[in-house]
Amino acid sequence: MLSLPxxxxxxIQTHGLTRRFGALTAVEDVTLSVAPGxxxxxxxxNGAGKSTTIKMLTGLLEPSAGTMSILGxxxxxxxxxxxxxxxxxxxxxxxxxxxTAPEYLRFVGRMYGLDRDTVNRRTEDxxxxxxxxxxxxxxxxxxxxxxxxxxxLAAAVIxxxxxxxxxxxxxxxxxxxxxxLKTMLQGMIQRGATIFLTTHVLEIVxxxxxxxxxxxxxxxxxxxxxxxxxAGVASSLxxxxxxxxxxxxEIFLSIVGANGQEPAQELSWLT
Length: 271
Prior knowledge:
Elements (H helix, E strand, L loop, with lengths): L11 E10 L2 E11 L4 E5 L6 H8 L7 E6 L2 E2 L5 H4 L2 E4 L11 H11 L4 H14 L15 H13 L5 E5 L7 H16 L3 E5 L3 H7 L2 E6 L2 E7 H11 L11 H9 L15
Parallel strand pairs: 3-8, 3-9, 6-7, 7-8
Antiparallel strand pairs: 1-2, 1-4, 4-5, 9-10
């Protein structure tokens, strides 16, 4: 008797995901699937619906319609066990400013259900890795924006999540820290974690991600591997040579339609 290969369960899956705010539809009918171990880039212009999608996928917003699952299980607002398997750096970071960095990391670790010894050990490891060890007495509210980003990422990974959601994690982070964080994230991928990243820095996506989806005006307009999108866009552009390698920025601008827009009005007083 022949045995069929077992189908891989998606790490993140949505079907018809929609979110409305009154008359405004911020996200409409988004259907996508992210395989386990993928570094997935979720791109779009400002106001396209990226952060709203992440908030739904992490339980911060209830969808108006559609379904979603994480690690093969339906994800609803009360799915506590699933929430313990994901990490998130949200758009506004949502840190507790009147705590120190060690206090905050210990609080988050305990909320994820880690025992006290594990929390203490991982807190020290993360403070050193994020180069925050010398700032252990300073309140989080007195941290620079870049330091707060590093602390938010440390809190998002302290429990060893299987799925990590990152909303603009490199914004305000210096080049040295950015390189360190990229190395950490790539290490997580190698160990089988799945990362869902939104950022406006397309060079970072091109370097880190294998697959991307592009959302525009609340609707998904592209979804696939970067190489597949590159081939599809190159074949549709007149005058593009077969050996020309389009950048992700060129792919993005072509798909969201920026190339067909009228030139921006010039400011005469700046020339």
